[in-house]
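cache lookup: miss for this entity combination. No prior model stored, computing from scratch. Input as submitted by user K.M.:
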Amino acid sequence: MIRQNIRVAVDAVVFGYKDRRLNVLLIKRDIEPFKDSWALPGGLVLNDESLENAVERELKEETNVTVDYLEQLYSFGSPERDPRNRVVSVTYFCLVKPEHHNIKADTDANDVAWFAINELPKLAFDHTIILDMAKKRLRNKLIYEPIGFDLLADKFLFSDLEKLYMTILDKQIDRRNFRKKILSFEILEELKEKVSNGRGRPANLFKFNQEQYFKLKKEGFLFDIK
Amino acid sequence: MIRQNIRVAVDAVVFGYKDRRLNVLLIKRDIEPFKDSWALPGGLVLNDESLENAVERELKEETNVTVDYLEQLYSFGSPERDPRNRVVSVTYFCLVKPEHHNIKADTDANDVAWFAINELPKLAFDHTIILDMAKKRLRNKLIYEPIGFDLLADKFLFSDLEKLYMTILDKQIDRRNFRKKILSFEILEELKEKVSNGRGRPANLFKFNQEQYFKLKKEGFLFDIK
DNA sequence: ACAAAAGTGTTCGGGTTACACCCATGG
DNA sequence: CCATGGGTGTAACCCGAACACTTTTGT
């Protein structure tokens, strides 16, 4: 029997939300293959680190980003996906709050940037497929779990949340019904602070109460925004 | 930099439904570690086969089973999960119809058997965790996708479907509401054949119309049984 | 005629949807 | 005082949940 010759990598799809747009974090490759192409951050797993640690390490090294939410997405392993060697890549789905958006190119990459999801360059390897799957996961999770809060600042306006949902789900949402629904969950704290953003009536700031959410979830509560 | 020394395996959680019980397919290991323990079927991926092919090959070799539904479940890669070498295992979620339940021990395994889900032996490695995740996936998918039909014979009684849902979701279901709901989807064909199973009024056979389901799905239809 | 499983309709209530006007601020 | 975005309530409708009796067969 021939010795198995497969390498294990991790790749991350990192979403950020800024200026009412959904963005993805990409790096520009500085080595072949696909030199100078944009690609998802990632790399080979070290012998003694967990898969999650590998993603976090690669993200730190390549982009200097620390994520606020991370979960496994899918594993890609078709024999031809990397022209050099066979590589099985375990991919991760990540969300980053705006306060952690600061990026910095480093090891293995000569450039790092946020790209609006609908203005993407051609990606290396099968990364477009991975990204598509991540977009689906995002839309799905947004409806059934309170992950939208991991894309917003700790304190946010209700209108931010509403716009985030409209942007990512790509549909109109009734302001009154949306607010009623979310508030009925009782997982938001309404802060005393108000923010006036230029024109218009100043708005209240809100904060996501994660402990309260976990407590409710344990009691059988289901987050659900159609 | 040290050469990466990680192996890639696949493991399968295969569910079957028989005698109103949910069963899992297990093999008895005939080599160390965990010799004589029961385990999920699986094994190392060959250099030039896809992950899906690897699962199907291992299942064929170890159990002689061909599955009716297969999807990736999750990848497990903690450094200590296999005492010999580091192994990252890509696991799969499989369903088998009763007509394909015939099993046969073969390579790498000295025994193969179906176990009722609530009468499981201790499992090797981290396979209990994998199985738990698969159970959750099954319950979840049963509600949002018509996968129950991949656990039943091609022609089945409505009461079979109903009992399958009650068994797997572990709750009572109102017969009238359930039938109304499923029939309203218009993805079942009512056959002319009736079956009398011992006592009671003979029942109609039904067949799942997959083409119709795909067509409706494309048009935006969502299968959903609470 | 009796036991066992199959088949069938209606009512009620809660939740989702649709919808429009006033409020607070800055310029 | 006007433009801009924030904040709020009610009525109609639909869907899910609850619920019991009749039918068909085998013994």
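stored under new cache key. The interface with chain A takes residues 2, 4-8, 44-51, 72, 74-75, 77-79, 86, 88, 90 of chain B (CB under 8 Å).
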